[in-house]
């Protein structure tokens, strides 16, 4: 009688699973990495030169970075990005999650509300910026409408006030992007087992406490996805600013992406634009690398 040798069969190592699919993906991965890494290295190298209209390897050390951080326009753009980014992250998550919790209660006309909230995301940033430029215009926008109702002293012109112009851009950004975050959160809420809610009701746990202590921790992957989407939109914000203010009044609403574009194409100063884009890349890396390390380390430990 032959012995079964099933116990002697070694399990496949993890890297051999779906080997054919991995091999098929190699060209795409190599192309993507080559373009991303190659272009990033090329940009960083030329940021240490004095390239103007055309790139050339005429190195000047850190002169471009010293000039960059001594330029008031760049400092204002960094400050605006920080204000816009923090407010956009917090408000998008809070508003999106709040709207999702209301829709998750199986309200009437849910499909209609979901469509209304999500519709702005279908518009381009240029269209959104122009629409909100009209809405916030004091001559025929919100201020004009309210004053026509008898409130003659009412003032609301954020796009013309250097101190609060970034918040006028923030309003347009939230109007367009919050619907997508709401849909993502709603999908996460619909994935929660109904038995959890039943158990919370039996135990007499208030609804708000169930959300804070049970539901939100279970939706960590959903929040991470939303956070990545919001962050990517914040770093590359450009269209809204150009459509609404073109960086004005003065330089009050400048952002890093617009600074890079203007330096590289309008001022024909490639090296300065490369230095600014390199600083944007470094900022993103400082934020993402520690997060990715902790995330994958936690999964590996698990």
From TrEMBL:
Topology in membrane: Multi-pass membrane protein
The record's PROSITE patterns line, in alphabetical order, gives: ABC_TM1
Q: Which UniProt keywords apply?
A: Cell membrane, Membrane, Transmembrane, Transmembrane helix, Transport
Where is the protein situated, by its record's location annotation? Answer: Cell membrane
Main location per the UniProt record: membrane
Establish whether keyword Protease is in the entry.
no
Identification of the protein by name: Sugar ABC transporter permease
